[in-house]
Amino acid sequence: MRTQFTILLSGLLIFFSCKNNKPEKVAEHNTDAPVVYGYTNIKGIGYEAGVTRRDPSDVIKVENTYYVYYTKVLGQAPGYWGTIWYATSNDEGYTWQEQGEALGVGSQGDFDSHAVFTPNIIMANGKYYLFYTGVKPTLGRTDSVFENNSSTDITALGLAESNNPNGPFIRLNSNPVLKISDNPEDFDSYRIDDAALLYREGKYLLYYKGRSRFHGSAGPAHTHMGVAVSDLPEGPYVKNDKNPLLDKSHEVMVWKQGSGVGALASISSTVAYSETGFDFMSNTHLVKAINRPNAPGAYRPDLTGNESNELKWGISMVHNGNDCYLRRFEVTTKKEEKTHLKGSYGYDRKLLQQYYQDATVLENPSEKSGIVVVPELQGRVMTSTLDGDEGMSFGWINHDLIVSGKINSQFNAFGGEERFWLGPEGGQFSLFFPKGKGFDFPDWKVPTIIDSESFQTVSRNKTSVVFNKKASLTNYSGTTFDFST
């Protein structure tokens, strides 16, 4: 039997008329001013059911038109699939028109014959150079699948060029412009990906992320940023002997900042700075990135020959389960933030915004009440306040679990108040015990839809937010429930 349900999940702010007692107050001090990011949904290449758009390039402007290049996948979950598409905008990235495919896969047997993705671009000498990551099917597979195993599979950077930002883009040759290291101990012996370009002092700097075969199966936590240098945009590129330049850099974004170079270290959510572009780790002064973007590409006038020394906006990715789409980010403000006492609303709000990109703050404009709702935690109301950041945090939050980033396959007590719960937990109609298992604690498993999966934000304003989620569950008796919007 298959039963169809439609659900609309909504988190709404409820304001209280009573006042709370403040937590015991301690001395507050100013910290280094963080970089704060805000977001705007975009038209044209935003959310679209059944379509993945991810890994946007840096944004360039040619005459009065903005260009962004990205990975697009039809009918596949995010992963090692896709080709490179592009879109244009005439209103600073709020509305986009998808123009079509910019680069398809390479010829059979070439390093990029399975998929091409994570593009980036730079203009030089009147031409547009499109850098990208390519993969080919895993050796020995008869079904042409790329496994992404850390033993034999590789990624590499390719390069195509055009006289026009609209293409056509033609590969310079069938070989990569940058390959993995042959030394298994090197930081980039397993993966090279995520190109970002910068022209500085007569040299072309090709920044990229790398991961060692020693850490291949351990995931993004061991990804670092490196750089290769060339006199010409088409190469050859020589890797810098100071590599890696920056750790905790699973996603590469660099830009001209003042007289030096800024870089986002995505895993640690920090912004680093180097006067030379090569010594990020020798500068121990890191600035916190609040609500940092995922897989971002910055609007960079310098990529088309204009001077730029400030990051203002760009395009980034939203990743909700199998849904990937693009949105605009803005560097909204740089301000001195207070250090709040643990147990206060301000302390919990800052922590949630640091670890969950879509954490949503809803506020009563006429009072100091507010709540924090987290789509990544199934739209839970994680905490609330009646007296602003200095007021008590009305909600239990498992700080240690959130900071650890670890997910338990059985259940995860993140805290907060669920907006949606399913039952029964036990018995013949249980949703917490798989068919054929006993009703013992080791067999008990909370469905991920109410435990660890993200919900998608449909709309939000200052006082409300609406989510949706598609999922399917089968109970102990074999009945399947489909949840969709």
From TrEMBL:
Lineage of the species this protein comes from: Bacteria, Pseudomonadati, Bacteroidota, Flavobacteriia, Flavobacteriales
InterPro entries for the chain = DUF6786 (IPR046713), GH43_arabinanases (IPR050727), Glyco_hydro_43 (IPR006710), Glyco_hydro_beta-prop_sf (IPR023296)
Tell me the protein's name: Family 43 glycosylhydrolase
Q: Name one GO molecular function term.
A: hydrolase activity, hydrolyzing O-glycosyl compounds
The pathway that the record names for this protein is: Glycan metabolism; L-arabinan degradation
Query: Which PROSITE patterns has this protein been placed in?
Result: PROKAR_LIPOPROTEIN
Per the record, the similarity remark reads: Belongs to the glycosyl hydrolase 43 family.
Q: Name one Pfam family in it.
A: DUF6786
Which organism was this protein described from?
Snuella sedimenti
